[in-house]
Design goal:
single chain, about 190 residues, alpha+beta, Endonuclease III, domain 1, 2 domains, three-stranded antiparallel sheet, 6 helices, 3 strands, about 35% helix, about 15% strand
């Protein structure tokens, strides 16, 4: 049983599906055009009933004509079944090609293009290191993004990076040098 409710459709089962299945919610948003909102958001439950399950990979594996036939079954899934079937097929295909079919991954997508980086404030917990008692020398800091694997990614091969940090100077006047990384000067 979901912990949240989204009472839109007037059908508790259809409403629960919108809360428990991200694909249902996205398809409902897609169908919310030129029909009453209740009808649009009831569409994913109807589609699931006709297909046996609601799965982007399954929809994308169908032909556009097959998806349209499902939308045209009586009663039609939408006021414009052909147009909305094409859009639903395109949505499912996009989800498969870009998010491995996982609609929930849409909400967590974050990327940094090559050559970009983030700057963090030293005053925030977990964003700095106390180097006061570390002797001068070369150190390597390993940073891992998404260590528990909760964010959907096509590849996690670049989630761990090791950076060289060189400490120098004297107490009260320490120096920190971070050599360029892949051509990016971080100094």
């Amino acid at each position: 049983m979901p912990t949240a409710t989204l009472p839109i459709t007037g059908d508790p089962a259809a409403d629960d599906l919108l809360v428990t299945d991200p694909l249902a919610l996205v398809i409902g948003m897609l169908l919310d055009q030129q029909v009453p909102m209740e009808w649009a958001f009831r569409g994913p439950a109807t589609l699931r009933g006709r297909l046996g399950s609601l799965d982007a990979k399954r929809i994308a594996a169908m032909s556009p004509d097959e998806v349209e036939a499902v939308f045209r079954q009586k009663p039609a899934l939408h006021r414009y079944p052909a147009s909305m079937a094409k859009r639903t097929y395109a949505l499912a295909t996009h989800l498969v090609e870009n998010y491995d079919g996982d609609a929930s991954a849409i909400w967590t997508r974050e990327t940094l293009p090559a050559g970009w980086g983030d700057t963090y404030f030293q005053s925030l917990p977990g964003q700095s290191f106390d180097i006061t008692d570390l002797p001068n020398g070369t150190y390597f800091i390993q940073v891992q993004a998404d260590p528990t694997g909760e964010i959907y990614e096509r590849s996690s091969t670049n989630d761990t990076q090791v950076r060289e940090v060189i400490l120098g100077g004297v107490p009260g006047n320490r120096t920190v040098t971070v050599p360029p990384w892949h051509g990016i000067d971080t100094g």
